[in-house]
Amino acid sequence: MATALEPEATIGILGGGQLGRMLALAAARLGFKCHIFSPSPDSPAFEVVHRVTAADYNDKAALDRFAADVDVVTYEFENVPAETATFLGARVPVLPDPKILATTQDRLAEKHFVTGLGIRTAPFADVPAVAALAAAIEQVGLPAVLKTRRYGYDGKGQATIRSGSDPEAAWREVGGQPCILEAFVPFEREVSVVAARGCDGSVECFDVTENEHRDHILKVSRVPAVLSKARAQEALRIA
Question: Measured on CA atoms in the order 53, 55, 59, 61, is the torsion positive or negative?
Fold first, then answer.
């Protein structure tokens, strides 16, 4: 079991984007140092930490040096290779567990995980190849959104299929790679909950947040969300 970090401990962060930058700034206010590992030498998180490694996620020598310099490793987003986290996990505590990373970076695995917990999701179907697309549309209905199983964010890797449109054109638009087809759902607003679990199993949640998107990219988050108390509690329970 991981133990609480001592003051001045160094947190290793895989990924150097804006989320890594915000994570490092928050850690600094709590008295921790951060070491960012990112393939891009122009990573914005590099500007706010005391040590950086610019290397490929498959560079085992660089990963070894990184592991030797940090007390714990985490990641800023889900598109870090799970194999990288597993490699580091044999050398230093990695949180969340690399198995969780592997689940969250694959939309199909993630959907099956969530539905297995009894939590409802939008109807979805596996589309491993273009030949499976017609059956997926029959199962899910239209309109629907074709989404790549991996590496999609901020609206990337997504194409909407509507009645009368060409499904195969949507398949080509997302790069002709394994996908899921996800049904549209009627909704009033989108809300999200950020939860953190301690080593002792206790869970703390931030307030329920309401999100507004423009052009498929998150534009504004408002706290607290405009929700009834019952629905807010249900969101917290699910998280």
Answer: negative
Separation between Cα atoms, residue 190 and residue 80, nearest integer Å:
26
d(CA 162, CA 181): 12
Which backbone phi and psi does 59 adopt, to 5 degrees? -80, 95
Alpha-carbon dihedral of residues 137, 139, 142, 145, nearest 10 degrees? -70
Mean pLDDT of the chain: 94
Maximum C-alpha span of the chain: 60
Q: What is the pLDDT of residues 175-212, one digit of tens each?
A: 999 999 999 988 889 999 999 998 889 999 999 999 99
* Domains in the chain: ranges and CATH: 10-104 (3.40.50.20), 107-183 (3.30.1490.20), 190-238 (no CATH)
